[in-house]
Structures are given as C-alpha cells and as structure tokens.
Amino acid sequence: MSGGEGTREASVVEAQALSKRYGPVEAVRGIDFIVRTGERFGFLGVNGAGKTTTMKMIYCRIAPSAGSLRVFGLDSAAHAMAIKRRIGVVAQESAIDPELSVNENMLLYAAFFGMSGARARLKADELLRFVGLEGKGKAHIRELSGGMKRRLSIARALMNDPELLVLDEPTTGLDPQGRLLVWEKLSLLRAQGVTLLLTTHYMEEAARLCDRLVIMDAGRIYAEGTPAELIAQYAASDVLEIVGDAAALPDPATLDGLVRRSERHGETSYLYTDDGPALLGRLGALGFESRRHVARPATLEDVFLNITGRELAE
Amino acid sequence: MSLRTYAAFFSPNARHVFRRNLLAWRKYAWSSVTINFAEPFVYFLAIGFGLGSYVRLGGQTRFVSFLAAGLLAALPMNSATFDAAWGVYERLNTSGVYESMVTAPVDPREIAAGEYLWQAFRALLYGTLFLIVMALFGLIASPLALLALVVVTLTGILFAIPAVALGATVPYQEQLFYYFSIVITPLFMVSGVFFPLDRLPVWARDVIWFTPLYHAVNAVRPLIAGRPTVGTLGDVAWLVVFIALFMALPMARLRKKLAS
Ligand SMILES: Nc1ncnc2c1ncn2[C@@H]1O[C@H](COP(=O)(O)OP(=O)(O)OP(=O)(O)O)[C@@H](O)[C@H]1O
Ligand SMILES: [Mg+2]
Description:
Chain A is of the alpha/beta class. Chain A has ten helices and 14 strands. Chain A is elongated, with a radius of gyration of 23 Å. Chain B has one domain (about 5-260). The two termini of chain B are about 20 Å apart. By secondary structure, chain B is mainly α. Chain B is globular, with a radius of gyration of 19 Å. Chain B has helices at about 5-10, 10-25, 30-50, 65-95, 95-100, 110-135, 145-165, 175-190, 200-210, 210-225, 230-245, 250-260. The chains are: A alpha/beta, B mainly alpha. Bound molecules: adenosine-5'-triphosphate and magnesium ion.
C-alpha cells in the first residue's frame, strides 16, 4: 500500500535537536531520532512526555520552535503540503466528522487528495473491508462504538496510500479484543511496506509492535533501541520482585555480583539479574525467606522504571 | 492581503469544504429551511400586516412592501451569522472537523473560503424562497427584483466574515451570544429594515452609514421596486469593498489556530 513516485529514502523522519515550547512550557526539549523506511518505530512515555507534540510536528500540524525536522528528506516547515500528501494520520482524539456518514467521511478525505468518483469509492470500500467495517458505509457516526471509530480513522488515514502512517495512541481506550484487532491490522500494513510511527503508554504494545523505540519523558529521549536491546542494556534478563521485607533484605552488593542493579519503589524492591534461579538460591543460602516475591523475565516496564523512575500505565 | 486569499475561493478544497457543509446540512435541511424562512415570515405577517395596518409611509409605498424588502435584505445577515459563528466554533474546537482537514493538504484559508461559499449558498437559497413568497403576495414590481438576490448573496458572504472570525477566536462558545445580541440585533433594528431613517438625527445616520446592513437594505429596496439608481450601485460597491477588505481576517485567525 506504500510507494508513490520518487526514490525511497533510507530514512523517513530525521530529527535533530527538535524542540517545541508552548509559551513557558517546554513540551519537547531537543530530541534526536531517525525513523528508517519500512520499520515500526515507537515512542513510549507517560502522560505529558511530549509524544503527541512530537507527532504533531512530524505531520506538520505545528511548527518546531527549534531544531531540524526532515520528513521524506523534506524540511517540515517549508514543505508541509508535500509531506501531508504522503502521510497518514490517526490522531490521539479521533476526529471523525460526526455529521457525516462513514462513507462520506472517507470520500471527503479522499477529495482533499484529489481523488473522486468510482476510484475513491472503490478505495473506500476496500479500506473499510480491511479494517472490518464492511457494510457500515452508510452508518451514522454515533452508531459506531469507540473501537469502530478508531478503525475508521485508520481506514481514512490510509485513503491516500501513505508511505508513513503516524498513530498517536492507536489503542488507548480499546478493550483487549479491539487492541488485538488494531495490532493485527498494523502488522498487515507493515508487511505491505508502510512505515509505522506510533506512540503508546503500554509497554506490551511497544514490545510487540515496535522494531525500534525511544523512551521519552518530560520532553527528552532517554533511550533508544530494539525492545530486546533496551531490556539487555537497562534491565537484565530476569527480575526478582520482593514486596515488603526491605530491612531483612541483604545488601545487593554482597550477593556475589548476581544483582546487576536494584531499585526500590514504594513497597517493592526490584533486583535485576541475569541468573534468576542462582540469585534465589543465594538469597536462600543467606537465610532470607520472603513470603511475597516473584521472579520473572525483565520487560520494557523495568527499562522504563530504571530510566525514569516512574511506572507506565497499564 | 495576498493573492492566496482570493485564490482560496477558487481552490478545489474550498469546494470540498462547501460540499462537506452541504452533506451535513442535508440531514437537517427541513428544519433549517423552516427556521430560516419562518423567522422573517413571522415578522412579515405580524409587523407587515398587523402593525403595518396602522402605519402610513409618505408617498405611494405600502408599509408591507417596504418591510418585506427590508426583511429580505436582513435575511442573509441572520442566516449567516449564527450558522457560521456557531458552526465554525464547533468544527474548530469540538468535533475536530477542521483538525482532520488539515492533516490532509488543506490550507486553513481554503477552509474559510469554503465557509464563505457555504453562507453565500444559504443566503441565496433562503433569499429565493422569501422572494417567491413576496411574489405570491404581489409585492414584486419588476424582474429587476431578481438582482436583489445578488445583493442578498453578497450580504451572506459579508456577514460570514465577522462570524467566522469570532467562531475561530472566542474561547467559549456562549460568548458568541454577546455578538448576536450586542451587534446583530441592534443592526437589525436600526438599519432601515423596519422604518425609514430620514427622521433620525444626522449624526445617527452618519454612524449607521458605516454599518453593512444599512447598505444591503438600501440596495435591495429599489431593486424590488424596480427603480434602482446610481446610489444603489454605490451601496453594492460598499458591500463589495467591505468583503474585499476584511475577507483575509478570519483566514488569518483560522491559520493561527490550525497551523501553530
Ligand atoms: N497546545 C498546548 N498548549 C500548551 N501546552 C501544551 C499544548 N499541548 C501540549 N502541551 C503541554 O506539553 C506537554 C507535552 O504534551 P503532549 O500532549 O505532547 O504529551 P503526551 O506525551 O502526548 O501525553 P499523553 O500521553 O497524555 O497524550 C505537556 O506538559 C502539555 O501540558
Ligand atoms: Mg498524547
């Protein structure tokens, strides 16, 4: 579904020292990243991290305050219209026209890209089928559930055969089934060569959907890599979570180097290790018995916690 | 004011914005026609025939035909003002209609131009209906009355300008009522719709000269009566100059909201 004329650049988005301030608020504070052609790239961060602001700059809704931003090799401020032609946008708040039917929403959007008549209608039907909304063309928007609306925004965003699809929290507010459905569609798009750029609060989603991701907090990027790289670098292969018992816990430094790092958040101690069973054994040998502990593989959640000291939404 | 301002009127995107409003309007067309037609019609019956039977104007003119022409001239002010101000606010702030338009390659100026075209259409449609009723009551003296529809359409565009600007500016939708009741209602009362202005003090007439509805009324009335003069052309020119001067203002407002 991607393509279009011209050469395919190796990277779709390149940002350098990209910043955005809203009056006194520095929403994005000098970030650098590159989104390569054909990959699924994610922004993982909590509320207010600056994810939406970054997406809006990429789809040329707002202009950067400083730094450079190139999309398809074009300067975003100077070539907004040319960039918009090649991009699909699923905004955080789906802006489906409530006064138009499903089909009318699709066809109006097509018209803005110069598509009309039978070609636009066929394309709209094809895309509605793709997102599982076949037969809903004549439906009024208020008859659609939240999940259906989200899928409609995805279908609409694909109307112009975008090379880059920007999705701002595509699954927030969806039930697990709706989330799975969106994930499945995004995988299909990826297979068709569309570059995907998405934001999320959910570490599971980031781990599953993203080839590479950045972790963003308070307007800055703190880490970048594949999910596996990030886990290896910032967490460890396993995590031992121990609830309570902090006083009884031996000093991690005394545990024969089995603990790569440790954290304490609220009631819970987190011990990061590359050898979970060995650590448990060593703790037992030291006479430490915890009634409430979990040993599990490390996740992006741990990476996030390590880097920002905050927990993600779930 | 740049060429882009005027070019926006002829862009395909302005037509698509117009068509979007038409599609939305079709779903409630009957109630919209009824309201926009009923309001002047009620004034026409109640004041024209009710109050009018007690009123003598100088010369041959019957009060009811005097009033009907005035109501026709004022109709586009009322049809454009509320619809554009309220609708633009909604599409900008509430329903996200403009927000999704500008993710496509659409310039906010084209959106404003589409809104003007839409108000031109409404003015023409409701104006035509009212003109037909006037004809049925035998109040049309000459085919020149059809030219009054040109003035009506221009007046629709003219009043769309401040309405779009305010809809794109006010932080709270209810604040639009200040404009409706402090500006629009008084204009409706003092622009010569209901009574001739020749007994007003000179200073009052001088002030009124600077307001648009007065010129719309001044242009429509002689056309309905079939006796336009050079002055009529002057009034039309006043409307055209106003439109040309201020058309870019709401475009700038929308650009500020949708591109920053
Ligand atoms: N239009 C605006 N005017 C002023 N401040 C803004 C504006 N938009 C965002 N901000 C501020 O910029 C910061 C980043 O907001 P942004 O919406 O980019 O975060 P986010 O990561 O998308 O958060 P969420 O996960 O809640 O969607 C926040 O502090 C927010 O209050
Ligand atoms: Mg956001």
